[in-house]
Amino acid sequence: NNRAHPQGLWVLWFSLIKIHSTSPKVHVSPTKKGTLQHHNMLVCHVTDFYPGNIKVRWFLNGQEETAGVVATELIRNGDWTFQIMVMLEMTPKQGDVYTCHVEHPSLNSPVTVEWKAQSDSARNKTLTGVGGFVLGLIFLVVGVFMHKRSKKGKKARR
């Protein structure tokens, strides 16, 4: 009896998929840099995964969102990997946390990527704080350098 056993083929196929699977890369971004309370769309771009069976879901503050979710068809990259974009229509409010949740056979646990809604003023305060810190650090380094240099100059004149 030379017929292959279906169970053996299934095990072989499953192990080949596991060996030759590629984990997805996940990136989340809004379609436009807007202010809070304005209609926008978040894009969860999932790339470079194999095989093509994948589940992508959106969550808002821990609750699954199904309304306003639009997905592209599965796109073949030409190198045996796939990509997909899953968009969520939303109007962000201060403190909202949006999560793109991706399940794929190559992953032991789902990949989740968060996007937090924050106001432009909060973002600007953060950037101003970081900029001030960097500027202060530069002045400190220049000051220490000039102080050491002036000490060396005094020693050389003696």
Automatic annotation (TrEMBL):
Where are the membrane-spanning stretches? 127-147
Q: Where is the Ig-like domain?
A: 24-112
Sorted alphabetically, which keywords does the UniProt record give? Membrane, Signal, Transmembrane, Transmembrane helix
Q: Does the keyword ATP-binding apply?
A: no
Does the record carry Coiled coil as a key word?
no
Q: Tell me the domain of life.
A: Eukaryota
* UniProt-listed SMART domains: IGc1
Checking InterPro entries in the record gives: Ig-like_dom, Ig-like_dom_sf, Ig-like_fold, Ig/MHC_CS, Ig_C1-set, MHC/Immunoglobulin
A Pfam family this chain is assigned to? C1-set
- The stretch of residues making up the signal peptide is 1-24
Which named protein is this? Answer: Ig-like domain-containing protein
Q: List the source organism.
A: Spermophilus dauricus (Daurian ground squirrel)
